[in-house]
Specification:
Length: 503
Amino acid sequence: MDMELQRITMEGYRLVSHGMFSQEETLESIVPDACPDISRIVSAVGKVFLKDKELGEGSLRLSGAARVTVLYIPEGEIAPRSLEVTLPFQCIRDDPQFHSGCPVQAIVHVSSADARTMNPRKMLVRVNLAVWAAVYQQEHCELSQDVTGGEGDGLEKLFSPCKCCLISDVAEKVFTFSDVLRPPASKPEIEELLFYRAELGSIDAKFIGKKLVLKGDIQLITVYRSGESLTQVRFELPYSQILDLGLASDEAEPEAAITLKSVDCRIRDGELEVTLEVLAQTALWVRQSVTVISDAYCVKRPFDVERTPVRLCTMAERFSRRESARKLCESGIPAKQVLDCAVSLVSMTSTSMTGSVEFTAQATASVLYLSEDDALCSVEVDIPAVCRADLPEGCSCTCNCRPVGEATAVPVTGGLEVRFDAEFTWTTICEEQVSCVTDLKPSAVHEAGVRPSVVIRRLEQGEALWDVAKACSSTVKDICSANNLPSEEVSPGGLLLIPTRRC
């Protein structure tokens, strides 16, 4: 009797590359004729916008522009001025696993920026970029779930239930939103905007029906001049977006992130008109139960069984934790009032230990402040943030980190005490190897003679009743019945009566 395997194909995506890398861009810039000469550069504030992602054979190319706002004191003046310099960038990363058509997720941010004068009309601007990129590859996994036919020959089948986790979809959406902002009543009106930066706040992703709803906020931090005074104001810009992915809410767990493609901020009649273009990126994890036929045999006639080991992701759990970091920054020039404190992530490393892993995020804090004599000053300090997580043996993990909330800098004796919170988000992934029947056909070898009706057999270490039943052309059910066994769990070493079925 012919036998036929019943197969299913699991389709999804596999993460083939994930990590951070850095890139430096420099540019010599001339001070425009309408601006006064530079006497002293105070600070440089950078922001970066991702324009294009291009994945070719063996190469990933990310392009965009970094804008650096240089805050400086002109010659013969006291009030600060600002200049914005645009530095195009192109990040290239080579990997033989990259192929055209693979989905790519990327986030780019400025880890540091600075500027120095070459002469009063010329300066050298430098910006360091931290790039996070993930590349996915579509894959198909064929599994055998059952076999039909052969029942008249006493077909016995061994099934293995599995819980599988896979990335079912990788999606993205570009959206734009605008707002008109006014400083609160307690703050003076805006006369001149010196610089602004955007901080990507928290993002919440959940399914409502078959639609994925993304909600979050972007913090716009501005420093402006009103008369002789400098003021910082934070504005909160909430957003909500819908991605129609055709999945039910209980079928997927989304991982979501956003990055900026452009920000336009300008003053009009004392108000700020802001327009943001944002790229939202999601990867959807699906958990499902699958039953695999891992072995089979016939008690009446021999069959050849071909089994292939298949690696399945059996666990993908996502965790998130906030960790606080602080450090004393020696300023050299004592601070009277802090105007702005910005924290950016520079690099991310992980150290594996027995049963755990330690993530270390290196960050840089840039502080803009007024000295005791009202001189505008700035200082930077490197601050590490550390998070330790459990990591089961044999598992791997991917981790991202970003500063969250408002970073603070407080004048203290000897300098400034800087504090910020870092949010670590990691996914623990476990894979197991499962044996799966891939072919089953009549054997060319036939047994000679008549088998005995009962065999006495000792259960060896590492053997299961299935192994004994298959070797002796019996069944697990018959062995349990002959030995009055309450279950298939039997300790090794004992003697068993094995009833066999004669041909």
